[in-house]
Amino acid sequence: MLLSTGLCGAPPETKAVVVEQAMIWGRAPHNALTDLVRYHDRWFCVFREGLLPVSPDGALRVLTSADGISWQPVARLALAGADLRDPKFCVTPNGRLLLNAVTGGQPRQSLLWSSGDGREWSDPDPVGEPGAGLGRIAWYLGHAYSAGGSRLFTSADGASFTVHADAMREGASLLFLPDGTALALAGNALGRSRVPYRGWSWTELKKTVAGGAMLRLPDERIVVAGRVTDATTRTALCWLDPDQEALTEFLALPSGRETGAPGLVFHDGFVWVSYSSSHEGRAMIYFSKIKLPPLGGGKKPSRLTFGN
Known about the structure:
Elements: E1 2-4, E2 17-25, E3 30-39, E4 42-50, E5 59-65, E6 72-77, E7 84-91, E8 97-103, E9 110-115, E10 125-127, E11 138-140, E12 143-148, E13 151-155, E14 162-165, E15 173-176, E16 182-193, E17 201-216, E18 222-229, E19 233-241, E20 246-252, E21 260-267, E22 270-277, E23 284-291
Antiparallel strand pairs: 1-2, 2-23, 3-4, 4-5, 5-6, 7-8, 8-9, 9-10, 11-12, 12-13, 13-14, 15-16, 16-17, 17-18, 18-19, 19-20, 21-22, 22-23
């Protein structure tokens, strides 16, 4: 069911608002580990479905929607005897849609599928090193980068990945800024690097966001979405201020218990989020449309600075 909250309550200029909220999939016994992309003027959402949170029948389900309200399944990717996990989308510079995931168990193996329409997918190809478990792929100046285990991997074509640098953190999500600065977020650790991204410096943050996805807005603010656990467990949106080395939570989505693994997209002036949650019983897939407050005072955010 779609929930439309409107813009009532606190003034939208001071507070983020959930404009629309819906559970979009819950047919499998367990549905989790999402990602989201806008491709060919449509939404595509991918996630793992299976009997249990960890089970050998784990498969990847792909949904699509023209409006974010009505969703249809278009693909199910499975591998006999393998638990497919942590799917992530990216779009290549030449317009192909890539989907990478890892097999459960030990050693983990990263797999890569490609598509020209989001519906028909290639057979999976192994990428990276066994055991590395590549995460979300980020592109900068025609090269793809992905964190896998304690290493950074890179690719010139999005098909074959090689080790580029050490000193990476497990589960890091990458973000490249227009000036070439690279950020990496792994739980409560914020990494920074510059071209050629071989040396990384890390700072421990006061807040932990598990499975964090990062998004840079057109006004230069950075949004992080992920699972936050303190007195409660929830999927939350936070502001990331790299200069102040701070994560500040500004919105908790309807969620609880087993929740997180969000996808994050900015489109048409809104932030759109896919995530999983079991606050209504079983773990199911949710989709939210978020209206953010404008940048206060019309000022540009401060830029990253580095010491010598």
